[in-house]
Design goal:
Elements: E1 11-21, E2 33-40, E3 43-48, H1 55-62, H2 77-86, E4 91-94, E5 98-106, E6 109-118, E7 121-134, E8 140-144, H3 150-157
Antiparallel strand pairs: 1-2, 1-7, 2-3, 3-4, 5-6, 6-7, 7-8
Length: 160
């Protein structure tokens, strides 16, 4: 039985190894998180979870400097629901609450920025793929890949 997802909710696309960043002054108090970005038929969900992806698998998700709309192999709605329950810092953004989806360029790197409203307040999150990561003192990205987010942006804009 699902706790966090509705019974008729299913995954449309998923991306591993995504870093989520809170831009602006609020971001000063929040660390960036690595996890899985999942689009269901009702929500956009970010679950902070480390998932190893081999270089061959990486081509399936972000090959040719483009982020692709694919499913994660061996990752189901049940596992997604369990991950949300295990990690209270997961972000669930209803698709009808998303105001704007765009690609911004900061420091010669493309980020996907999502602006949505929650409890009457506007919130923004940036998503990016890390090229290199430091593990000490905490796991944080050092360099980012410059990828094209158009496929994911089109997927999200089709529901706005």
């Amino acid at each position: 039985m699902r706790v966090n997802l509705e019974e008729d909710e299913h995954m449309v696309a998923a991306l591993p190894k995504i870093w989520a960043i809170v831009p602006g002054l609020r971001g000063f108090f929040n660390k960036s998180k690595e996890g899985i970005l999942v689009k269901t038929n009702k929500n956009l969900i970010f679950v902070p979870r480390y998932l190893y992806v081999s270089p061959k698998e990486r081509e399936k998700y972000f090959g040719e400097d483009k982020v692709k709309v694919t499913q994660l192999w061996d990752y189901s709605e049940t596992q997604l629901d369990e991950d949300i329950s295990e990690n209270p810092k997961s972000w669930i953004m209803p698709l009808d609450a998303i105001i704007e989806v765009n690609q911004i360029t900061l420091r010669k790197v493309n980020f996907m920025r999502i602006k949505f409203s929650k409890d009457g307040k506007e919130k923004m999150y940036d998503f990016v793929i890390a090229k290199s990561v430091t593990n000490y003192p905490i796991r944080q990205p050092l360099l980012y890949y410059n990828v094209d987010w158009t496929a994911w942006m089109d997927l999200l804009k089709s529901r706005i």
